[in-house]
Amino acid sequence: MRALESIWGVLRTATFLDAIDILIIAYFAYGFLKIIDDIRAGRLFKGIVILAVIYGASAALHLIAVSFVLKYFFAIGAVIIVVVFQPELRRILEHFGRRKFGRLGRWLGEEGSKINEEFIKLANILCDACETMAHQKTGALIVIERMESLEDIARTGTILDAVVTKELLLNIFFKNTPLHDGAVVINDNKIHAAGCILPLSNNNNINKKYGTRHRAALGMSENSDALIIVVSEERGEMSFIYKREIIPVKTANELKEKLLENVPTEGQEEQNGIGLVQNKINLLLLKVKEFKLRLKAKKQ
């Protein structure tokens, strides 16, 4: 009863700034937990939480030996964790740093109609090029930037900032050309960079039939919200990678539908119900716009 009265007393004296303060902490805590759940440090973090609970319980129950050991474990372990898991800690900070907050509503705002049409054209070019490369058994790896900036990935390759065309993509990925082994990064409907190096996934459950391109695509998906297309050189198959999942696609139309379902948008979380509904609405609107473009092209 006293605890409830204490909580009520805090709530009564809370101000608007206190609510903002709590929301900011909640946002970063949610983002932190979401990220570590997808990386190698996730299990370690869960183990630390369990030990912290045990430490709190031992202190409350006056278990002197257990409290003593865990107290010094946390004191020394903090330094060890920072050293051993430096790459994972850096990845967590990069996730927050990559977020783009300056493009809110860009794809669905005042310029939404124009940009949606541009994305339809981009999807058509990509799917046509990928289908051709699949038939020719030409390997390809294409990364489409969404909310999280991929500038650090682009810097590992050659900056092009070129208009996306089927011919250019076929040229880039043609065997033995200087840039064919790396990934193409697409940003703002342009080929921002080519020959880029992607982080390889450490997932041991990946199907053995997938090679380095798929492992690199999965690694990129684990580290960003990008849309990724892979064309297998050995099997001539296309794959769509998003949210740490490899989805085989058989036709260009199927690949296009996957792209249109995940049009780069901001101001929404794909995991919640609103985001899923919004994606479906986006797909429907884009298909209507595509139909209008086809009618316009036939009249011309």
Please tell me about this protein's structure.
A hairpin with a 6-residue loop joins strand 5 and strand 6 (238-242). It is built from 11 helices and 7 strands. The N and C termini lie far apart (77 Å). With 300 residues, the chain is of the alpha+beta class. It has helices at 2-13, 16-36, 41-60, 64-84, 86-98, 112-136, 151-154, 166-173, 212-223, 252-261, 273-299; strands spanning 140-144, 158-163, 183-187, 190-196, 227-231, 238-242, 245-249.
Strand order of the biggest β-sheet: 2-4-3-1-5-6-7
CATH-defined architecture of the largest domain: 3-Layer(aba) Sandwich
Percent in helix:
55-70%
Quaternary state of the chains: single chain
Number of strands: 7
**In what range is the share of β-strand residues?**
5-15%
Order of helices and strands: HHHHHHEHEHEEHEEEHH
Total separate domains: 2
Number of helices, counting only DSSP H or I runs of 4 residues or more: 11
The termini sit apart by: 77 Å
Instruction: Name the shape in a single word.
Output: elongated
> Regions with pLDDT < 50 over 5+ consecutive residues?
101-115, 266-277
Tell me about the biggest sheet? 7 strands, mixed
According to CATH, the homologous superfamily of the largest domain is DNA integrity scanning protein, DisA, N-terminal domain
Report Rg. Answer: 24 Å
> What integer is the average pLDDT?
77
CATH C-level class of the largest domain? Alpha Beta
Structural class: alpha+beta
Stated plainly, the CATH topology of the largest domain is called YojJ-like (1
